[in-house]
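Memo to structure team: turn this sequence into structure tokens by end of day. - J.P.
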Amino acid sequence: MISLRSYLFRDTEAETTYRRVIGLFLQGIALHSVEGDKADYDRFREDIEKCLAVLSPETPVSELLVVVGGALRAMEDYNQRTSKFVRRQNTELQHMVSMLTNTVITIGASSEQSVNRLQSIEKSIESTQKVEDIQILKLRLSECLEAVRAESERQHRDGRDALANLKKELESSQEMMGSFRPPPNLDEATGLPGKAEAERVIRAAMESPQGKFVVIAVCSRVQAVNARFGYTVGDRMLGAFAEHFKKGLSARDQLFRWQGPALVALLERAERIERVRTEIRQFADVKFDKTTEVGQRTVLIPISASWSIFALAPPLETFMTQLEAFAAAQAPRDYA
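Reply from structure team:
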């Protein structure tokens, strides 16, 4: 058996050679050790440099063995610390993947399949030690994150498309709403649309006036009833008159409260005006009574009307003037 001690005699060529070999080994250990923590690696190299510093031709054999032993202990300590450093990095990597998984689950930007793959990778890291295994996990993680990214882009695209469709539907709804007019304000006494709506309808009908007629009817003695019994009774009188007039018209006719005690109806008929006038006369000339309570007594109020019919014809201003003139002409008769 050959021992190292037999070669370490002073002042021999073998002694010098082996001293150089030991020095080269120590230098190689310092240069080619795996670097873990930067500060720890620098300290390890400093320890080896100290061992090299005492390695000289004058170093006694006993001290040379101490130097070699110190270098071995330094390398052993460093390897242990580096192993802990690697395990710590592995743990940190596991925590990073865990946080990534939880974040993906929280924001809900991936499918259930992607979440399951991330959780599988997280569990695999716990038992991973080899570099090759970490590289495989890195590849799996890259593929999984690519799937998560694709899923997020798909959801973003779907959301953008849904928003665009919603915008189109809103625009379409606005167009539809534009084609519908809000219901007109109704008169409290008669429950009918007022004069403004009547004027709008007549103006629209004037675009194709053929076969259209306007009937105006003025309820008699409303002002006298207001003066004697109050406006509440007068409103009841107008309401009864409007109900009677509405029953005489067809369902397609449009009836309005014009102003004061006057009502206006827009009719569309294929007959001549004489035939339409005969139709209206059958109920417009009918006189009837309205019974109402006034204080502690019951009052019977007779209801009748003056009316006229006009064939719709332009110009609009002239036609409106005819209606106003007829309504105004009935005022002197109100107290008659």
